[in-house]
Amino acid sequence: MFLQKFGFENSSTGATSELFSSPKDYYHYANNLDNNKYARNFLARNYRDGTGGANINNQQAFYWAKESAALGFTSGQYNLGYCYIKGIGVTPSDELAFYWFKEAAKITSSMAEYSVGFCYRNGFGTPVNQLKATYWFLRAASHDDGVDGLAQYVLAGRYHKGNGVNRDVHKAIRFGIRAIQFELRTENNGQQNAMYSLINIFSNGFHFLM
To answer: Which family does this protein fall into (predicted)?
Structure first.
């Protein structure tokens, strides 16, 4: 399922997260701090994931994501889109999910950029447009924050197949290698995942290079 492997984006503020120890703390700061967009976003994540001492509460997760997004916080906007695409505390809406992913991507959110590309690729909330999908995947791949590895994996396949781009074996290989390097760098079982990625990317077509 779309974005099933991703939770809420761990946004900008490790320092902010250290200020709070329980949902009650988040609630207090969300309503009293001038910079409360951070607290509202963290509160949404707690209720969504059942972390920080909170019980899972989808309605509260949606409410606080919406509150954070209303303050223009990029991660709050992305998380609100995530609620809409997954139906967390709200009736699912691909159109509203796409809208909020694009809002988050206007500033710079690699996860939002990837999600916009995914929506264009699959027609979630917008007509299928493979050229635009590639554009947004390229943007997501330009960051060095963890999402880039996923985007590079997708781009390897797109350049290999010529989907939304001119077919380019060299670019497919380049993005594939970067995706594999990401797997090796980040996963405990990185070598196994890297080999699986290699097989997926390069099978059924690259034999003609021999």
So the answer is: Belongs to the sel-1 family.
Structure tokens at 97: 């999910």
Helix/strand/coil percent split, the chain, to 5: 70, 0, 30
DSSP E strand boundaries for 142-182 = none
Kindly report, residue by residue over 56-93, the tens digit of the pLDDT.
999 999 999 999 999 999 999 999 999 999 999 999 99
- The helix/strand/coil state of 17 is helix
d(CA 210, CA 182): 26
Q: What angle do CA 121, 118, 76 make, to 5 degrees?
A: 150
The answer to whether the beta carbons of residues 129 and 116 sit under 8 Å apart is no
Ramachandran class of 208: left when φ > 0, alpha when ψ lies in -120 to 50, beta otherwise: alpha
**Domain boundaries of the chain, sorted by first residue:** 22-107, 108-205
Instruction: Report pTM.
Output: 0.78
Q: Please provide the CATH number assigned to the domain covering 22-107.
A: 1.25.40.10
How many Cα neighbours within 13 Å face the side chain of 143?
A: 18
Q: Name the CATH architecture for the domain at 108-205.
A: Alpha Horseshoe (1.25)
Domain 22-107 and domain 108-205, same fold? Reply is yes
